[in-house]
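Weekly modeling sync, notes
Attendees: AB, CL, MP (scribe)

Item 1: holo prediction request
CL wants a bound-state model with S-adenosylmethionine before deciding which constructs to order. AB pointed out that an apo prediction alone won't tell us much about the pocket. Agreed to run with the ligand included and paste results into these notes for async review.

Input as submitted:
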Amino acid sequence: MLMEDADVLWYHTVEKLKREGIIRSEKVRQAFLKVPRYFFVLPGHSKWAHVDEPLPIPAGQTISAPHMVAIMLELAQLEEGMNVLEIGTGSGWNTALIAEIIKTDVYTVERIPELAEFARKNLEKAGYADKVHIIIGDGTKGFPPKAPYDRIIVTAGAPKVPEPLIEQLKPGGKLIIPVGKYHLWQELYEVTRLEDGSVKTTRHGGVAFVPLIGEHGWEG
Ligand code: SAM
């Protein structure tokens, strides 16, 4: 497929998400237009990059559907200059979108080295490699060296909210995370750490993510 055709298809996907009210802010819309999903899918899947469905990536994982990524980014209410941690790099697509919105460095943790490498190459192709720091490890423990964070975005499903992630939020900071008792069904939680250290949790409906595996997640 020619790049121009891919760009036209991608533009229509973004505008459809806007019409449906899933993309609500201009900054998320602009980021989606600047960071098309085709840079982050497997080469054989480019022709489906604009389709609003998850797609397989190496190691049995998935790149999320565009509407899911938009929902999480809108909930996160990212601002320029925020300190953001992502857990679950996968293809690197969501990481690049975060970098595009906050215009500064992003820290992202991936447990599977093969995927960290896949993401690194994709981010290079898309022009975001210099802004993204990929850490290979167990993201359920967060990433203490760069804490506290304004936002932590988790793109895998946890059985419960990992305590270290709450501890690594700034007062007023938010954690966006799918939480549920089942491996492939969760509710999307928005957890805000209040000034007094307590948390406020708002639930935003059912989602389906691959499991978050680690010390404060599912057993591998
Ligand atoms: N955000 C990704 C994207 O845009 O392509 C999609 C991520 S995929 C749905 C979930 C990712 O979380 C997988 O790459 C998986 O290996 C990773 N993961 C699962 N448990 C993890 C953990 N404890 N720490 C870091 N990454 C983890």
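Recorded for review: The two ends are 38 Å apart (CA to CA).
Action items: CL to compare against the apo run; MP to circulate these notes.
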